[in-house]
């Protein structure tokens, strides 16, 4: 079967660094995506990793280890506006994604 | 990027009735999808909307319950049929644009409450 685990909630202070981990189980795997969703808003794309390693986009970085079925999202220099839910999702078939339950990030001043 | 207009944004419906949700995109779209999200929970793929042909449904979802149309590249509808309170959820349209097969864009969603 398919499964994905990520922490339900994380709290950090403004300016800090936070890492949101994601472990998955699936027979088909193309890549790992991360999405941000503010309350009442649409999910917005952050990153996609098809290969092992670290991808950096501004304050956000995403990592993938295919052999470990593991990835993480790293958020640096946290800002209050980063308070949102972050979803990990693996692509199990071409363009088809399985989403995790999301990690609610609370950024405190 | 893309602007995705989804209508209605919310609705309260009686059990046993049906609701049709519309999704209109302003850009060249390659693929369109429909997801369901319980508030505060994960997104679940319902189906892929195929232009001019029957949608491709994921396990646990059937055409009789969730008929989908996609008459052209940029427009799709999802109908939630014979609704029950268990259908109360947020329904989201998602698209992939030409030239990008990994970045999905989502509509704002339709918040459906069945009473």
Describe it for me?
The complex is a heterodimer of chains A (109) and B (115). With 109 residues, chain A is mainly beta. Helix content of chain A is 0%, strand content 61%. Chain A has no helices and 11 strands. Chain A is globular. The termini of chain A are far apart. The mean pLDDT of chain A is 96. Chain B has no helices and 11 strands. Helices cover 0% and strands 53% of the residues of chain B. Chain B has strands at residues 4-7, 10-13, 19-25, 29-37, 43-49, 56-57, 68-72, 75-80, 89-97, 104-106, 110-114. In chain B, strand 4 and strand 5 (43-49) form a beta hairpin. In chain B, strands 2, 4, 5, 6, 9, 10 and 11 form a 7-stranded mixed beta sheet that branches. Chain B has a 4-stranded antiparallel beta sheet with strand order 1-3-8-7, with no helix packed on it. Chain B has 115 residues and is mainly β. The interface between A and B is medium-sized, with 23 and 22 residues.
Task: Quickly describe the structure.
The complex is a heterodimer of chains A (109) and B (115). With 109 residues, chain A is mostly beta strands. Chain A has strands at 3-5, 9-13, 18-25, 31-37, 44-49, 53-57, 60-65, 70-75, 84-93, 96-99, 103-108.
Helix content of chain B: under 10%
The total strand number of chain B stands at: 11
Q: Hey, roughly how much beta strand do the residues of chain A contain?
A: over 45%
- Structural class estimated from helices and strands of chain B: mainly beta
Gross morphology of chain B? globular
**Tally of helical runs of chain B:** 0
The average pLDDT score of chain A comes to 96
Give the largest interface pair and sizes: A-B, 23 and 22 residues
Oligomer: heterodimer
- Major sheet attributes of chain B: 7 strands, mixed
**What is the count of DSSP helices of chain A, taking H or I runs of 4+ residues?**
0
End-to-end C-alpha gap of chain A: 41 Å
Low-pLDDT segments of chain A? none
- Which series of helices and strands of chain A comes N to C? EEEEEEEEEEE
Structural class of chain A: mainly beta
Distance between the termini of chain B: 36 Å
- The proportion of residues in beta strands of chain B is over 45%
CA-based gyration radius of chain B: 13 Å
